[in-house]
Design a protein that fits this description.
Blueprint lengths: L4 E5 L10 H15 L3 E5 L6 H15 L7 E4 L8 H12 L4 E4 L8 H4 L6 H20 L2 E4 L2 H4 L7 E3 L20 E4 L8 H11 L9 E4 L10 H4 L4 E4 L4 H10 L2 E4 L5 H5 L3 H8 L4 E4 L2 H10 L2 E4 L3 H12 L2 H14 L5 H16 L1
Parallel strand pairs: 1-2, 1-3, 3-4, 4-5, 5-6, 7-8, 7-10, 8-9, 10-11, 11-12
Helix pairs in contact: 1-15, 2-3, 3-5, 7-13
Length: 360
């Protein structure tokens, strides 16, 4: 153990793993612990205002008696709601504690993707608050971290860097497996998530009543209604509802290929989905639509193939990987190797190196 202490600020309640925004902070917490650091943790959701203020005030009091080596912040899924959080960041800056801030999202910059028609009052307020937060961070943060280089281009922070994507390590291994042409998709179901492209592609792969390329589609039960009736009874389609890695584990173990058909647009071009990392953890090669950062990741590490946002091309790439055992085995080896350097501990190690160096 190093005996050194860091301050870690989050905007969630630990213990729940409902989305990437709740998983990431908890995985990073565990990764910092694995690196031998003692952690002063600030948690609590923003909308629990009284509880949040009490938690922040407790940390401010702790800072009156302690000086951590550095502070790392996992941003909320939206702007800062409570003034106390701004006060805390200003105090950390005044104390000259190196502060790294992970800026996770920029949806407010993409009205053309998320807003139909005129902005609502709420949307205008969120955009204003987000701009206010950026001004605050320029004054208080020593280093802004982005999930991808493409996202960083939408901002003008003077000091920024990109963190490697995070996965827990090897949870499955497909090397040496004879593939059965079984594919899996886990995620949202809508036009934006590429459901139309996905289903049309598998209709092409399974003409008539054939079951040449089985597909398991895992989604929330409430979203399944989006799936057109003409596909529901197809023998090649299995619809499941599961969440969390343990519930998904048997489905991943039965699959040979992971799919990511999300619609290509300006927002998705800069995003890198945690789902790709989950596929990788379970040893699954992947076929993904060629959004910029997705394409960069898949091609850099050789984890699968990218395709156009087009059913025919998507189907062709699935067939290319699963139709050749030799090619499939090669991608399985590359997926296994890609885990190294892209784990949560690798991500935490970079933050520690960056911020302790600034302390020196």
């Amino acid at each position: 153990m190093s005996g050194k202490t860091m301050l870690y600020i989050t905007y969630i309640d630990f213990g729940e793993f409902r989305s990437g925004s709740s998983v990431r902070p908890q995985m990073m917490y565990d990764a910092f612990l694995q690196q031998g650091w003692e952690i002063k943790l600030l948690q609590t959701q923003q909308n629990q205002r009284k509880k949040r203020m009490q938690a922040v005030e407790e940390v401010i009091g702790w800072l009156d008696e302690n000086t951590p080596e550095f502070c790392y912040v996992e941003s909320p899924s939206g702007p800062l709601f409570n003034r106390c959080d701004a006060w805390l960041l200003k105090k950390i800056h005044t104390m000259e504690i190196p502060l790294g801030y992970f800026y996770r999202d920029a949806a407010f910059k993409f009205d053309e993707v998320f807003i139909q028609g005129k902005k609502s009052l709420k949307q205008r307020v969120i955009a204003w608050m987000s701009g206010r937060d950026i001004r605050l961070l320029k004054k208080t943060a020593d280093l802004i971290y982005f999930p991808t280089a493409s996202m960083a281009k939408y901002f003008d922070f003077p000091q920024y860097d990109v963190l490697p994507p995070g996965c827990v390590g090897h949870l499955g291994d497909k090397r040496g497996i004879q593939n059965q042409r079984r594919s899996i998709y886990v995620g949202g179901v809508s036009k934006r998530y590429g459901t139309d492209t996905l289903l049309e592609a598998f209709a092409l792969l399974n003409p008539g009543s054939a079951i040449e390329y089985p597909l398991t589609l895992v989604c929330r039960e409430a979203e399944a209604a989006y799936i057109p009736a003409k596909y529901r009874d197809k023998p090649w389609l299995t619809i499941r509802h599961a969440a969390g890695k343990e519930a998904l584990r048997p489905l991943y173990e039965q699959a040979d290929l992971g799919l990511y058909p999300i619609q290509k647009n300006a927002y998705n071009d800069f995003a890198l989905s945690v789902k790709l990392l989950e596929y990788m953890e379970f040893g699954l090669p992947m076929v993904a639509v060629n959004s910029t950062e997705t394409e960069r990741f898949v091609e850099q590490f050789g984890t699968g193939l990218v395709c156009r946002d087009d059913p025919r091309d998507f189907a062709d790439k699935v067939q290319q990987i699963l139709g050749s055992q030799e090619e499939y085995s090669r991608y399985c080896r590359q997926v296994y190797d890609a885990v190294e350097g892209n784990r949560w501990v690798d991500r935490a190690a970079k933050v520690i190196a960056d911020l302790t160096q600034r302390r020196a």
